[in-house]
Model the fold of this input.
Amino acid sequence: MNIGIYFNTEKYVGGVYQYILTFLDCLRECDKYNYFVFYASEDFPVTKYHGNGWKLIDLNHEVYVKSNVTYYLNQICKFGIINPHKIILNRFLHKKFKEYEIDLMIYLTPAVDSFGTGIPYIMTIFDLQHRLQPNFLEVSADGIWEEREYLYKNATKHASAIIVDSEIGKEDVINFYQIPQERVKVLPYVSPTYILNGISEVDKRDIIRKFNLPEHFIFYPAQFWPHKNHINLVKALHLIKMKWGEVISAVFVGSRQERWGEFDRVMNLVRDLKMENEIKYLGFVSEKEMIALYSTAIALVMPTFFGPTNIPPLEAFSLGCPVITSNIRGIREQTGDAAVLVDPRNIEEIARAIYQVYIDIDLRKTLIENGYKIIKNWTQKDFSLKLGSIIDGCISELPNVDNIYQESISLPKEIANEKALWQVKFQVHIDLWNYYLSEGKDSQAEKSFKEALSITEIPEQVRFYVLVAFGNYYSIQKRYKEAEEKFNRALSVEGIPDSEKVFVHYDLGSMYERKGDYKKAKDKFETVIDLVKKWRWGMLFGDRKIFEGRTHFHLGIIYQGMGEKEKAAEEFKQCLNLIPDHRKARENLKVIQMDL
Done:
């Protein structure tokens, strides 16, 4: 029996990345099946999983562009189009999975590829916060609510099993999507594998010295999403200073998530409160550095609004770090009596909890002891055994593959008439485009695409996104002439800011690089560097530094291909300055330095 695993997560996402690696490590213990890892991320640790009997299939070149297609189609959602995701190249993945005779897929993160590729699957759902707390823009704005709803509604309907973190998570999936409870499997998070590596006292001291950290500090590893609530934590620390006269420092790590502006709001508040010497932001840190920070901190303080459960408390429990976290629905299921719980909206309550843990050594010892007990009661071995049981159950009741695939590519029943809203007509033509492609009727698909673009009421911004999405699609198909034409048409659309067009230049550069046209590729990536320095832009690639770093990596590859080794080395160095853990940049730089 062949089990496929879909890996498309990158390091900058933080806790989810660590969860996925831990999931894979636990899956190693379920060794009765043949495993095939399809990875579409440069951060997949190939060397770690190579040679353990698993087949590793690199999808980076093909699926990289697919992620761009999905991004641009997501942007269309905000114009009232609810279902643009049928253009996500499921046909490519369907063929890839069939090539390796996959019987069951495991999606380690929620993915529209799951129900669109026609292979029975298991999928993990971390939360349904777009339903529970749509007031947070990161789960509702710019079509994100529609994107998430389309994904979860369809994925839960077709999945052989949905894995959730808790009984509360199970309750939410059943209530919102009416899924039979026997198909929703509770598999609580387990402490990440990297924690087991440990760290010496010498290394720990060196890391604390490297960051010039104070003797006492609280720690919060979290990306700067609004729901992570850094603002109230800073206010709480300021209140402690004003009310009790104690100066307690905080260390933040994680991506800035510049799209939402939360990092700037937090740092502006720090400046307004004159707390620059008390708040330290370290950016993205290594696993060793994470271990050092946890094991040295007074406490993990995590006043997040989202749950039901989270991974950082488990990391803290494992490393003897007291935990203060939010009293949100479901958290007791994870933390028991090993954490001080606070109302994330109540600044005084957060402040009082931090101050109490700071001054009370016995309380800290009790929290640490209770945390160790939780870790011992649910281990990676327990996780592996339950995961194996879930897989066995799905294997024994595999559904009809043809039914899944046909539902995912079904033809609309009626063509929208001339009086229909432009969104409806547009959606119908896009659905037809995808259907004809799935049936191998390329000429009819092309006609449907042209008809979608010919609808006169389409706003220019929608036209821009569609052109770029299809440019990426044709690029994957190696129909480079058509891709180039679509990209250039997109660049000519008026009224689109350079902060959006920067991605089109990047996509064009990537396409020219794949073609081997290094001169054009170099010009495009240099344009990207210029624009990145000039404009503030969205989150397609997450952190701005990561986007800029990857552009330098591409320039390094191009100069390497052109035989200009010194320039290539410089670009790889710039990449590593921005993304220290970029494996391929480090490997390529090493090769060049040996030659030089």
Q: What stands out?
A: Confidence is low (pLDDT under 50) at residues 82-89, 408-417, 537-542. The chain is about 55% helix and 10% strand.
